[in-house]
Amino acid sequence: MTKFIYRALDPQGNAIEDTMEAPSAHAATRKLQERGLTVNSVEEAYPEKGLLRVSGRLHWEDLQLLSEQLASIIRSGLPLVPSLQALAKDLRHPRLKPVLEGLHQDLDRGTALEDAIARQHDHFPPMYPALIRAGEASGDLPGVLGLISEHATRIVDLKHRVQAAMVYPLILAVVSLAILIFLLVKVVPVFESIFAELGGSLPAPTRLLVALSHGVQTTGPTIAIAVLIALIGGVVLWSQLLRSQRGRCQLELFRLYAPWFGPAYHVAVQARFFRMMSLLLASRVPVLDAIELSAAGSGSPVLERASEEAVLSVASGENLSDALKGTGFFGHDALWLMATSEARGRIDEAFESLANRYEREVATQDQMAGAVLGPAFVIGLGCMVAFITISLYLPIFTLGDQIG
What we know:
Helix content is 75%, strand content 6%. By secondary structure, the chain is mainly α. It has 3 domains: 2-44; 60-152, Type II secretion system (T2SS), domain F (Receptor-associated Protein, Up-down Bundle), CATH 1.20.81; 158-404, no CATH class. It has a 3-stranded antiparallel beta sheet with strand order 2-1-3, covered by helices on one side. Strand 1 (2-9) and strand 2 form a beta hairpin. Mean pLDDT is 77; it is low at 46-54.
């Protein structure tokens, strides 16, 4: 849950300014309107500060470890407060250790586990306290924590596969750039001096290579500074866009409609949404909250905004599959499976099946990208070395013909 500051008017016209916790600003607005209030503004109580603020958000590896430890403590019947204190004392983890210490302090003061986690909203994703609340309400908190741990394990495995697929192309790109700079700065000038002593006109490829060498040597520092300034400017622009909902949506639209990358990113966003829905519905979280939390957990501002209309449609009595169809974000096959499963009362199974299918597709796309990028960089590196070699040795043959 996130804490929001709201300003509203009651039915008598009196101004109210207070705080409340909700999964999103839209959820907070809806709850206030249900109370009969006229909402003027809803803002986060703890906005991000600073341009390069270091995020304290726990990674999925951290959530996996925390969920496993909490489930083990609860299943074994050990008292939670001293167990967390001992765990925080023994753990050597820079991100997780202060979180455990904060949880121990809040629980020691009598705060419920859900509220203690919600108070540390900077560290946990929005769905985590909602799942804890659902687990406590259903009496199966260890089971819910096990579901969270399994979900975190899947995400960690997928992230590791993506990283492994991209390491080889990245190394090749760095090596290719280093070889090119070395040849242009160290090797080409030596051959240039030899060609100048022999005299005669140089072939076009050699002149191009010599021009590139001069450009790198004379304007190399300027180019490096320009690239550095461009990178800093890009980081500043990116951070400014991320500060507003409109900016985040613009970046999201660029990612969704980018050539080749856009369809793969779209599939990844849907996979995260389906997995969150499956997890939340299996934990008996209410459907409206599940939609909002899943959209927020998908990482897509566009889907998050579209889900607001879906929530209103479901609240007015529309089927979940029809409400999600109205977002225009999901494909026909996924919507058909959701509609069929919802008619049989098995919508949670549909989301689990869709999550498994889309996650497999994401993994396949990542493997294909790694399989294609690696040979592409090798071919590019070979072409670059071949061009430089031919450009350096071609004058030897032409000058030999002139001497003859």
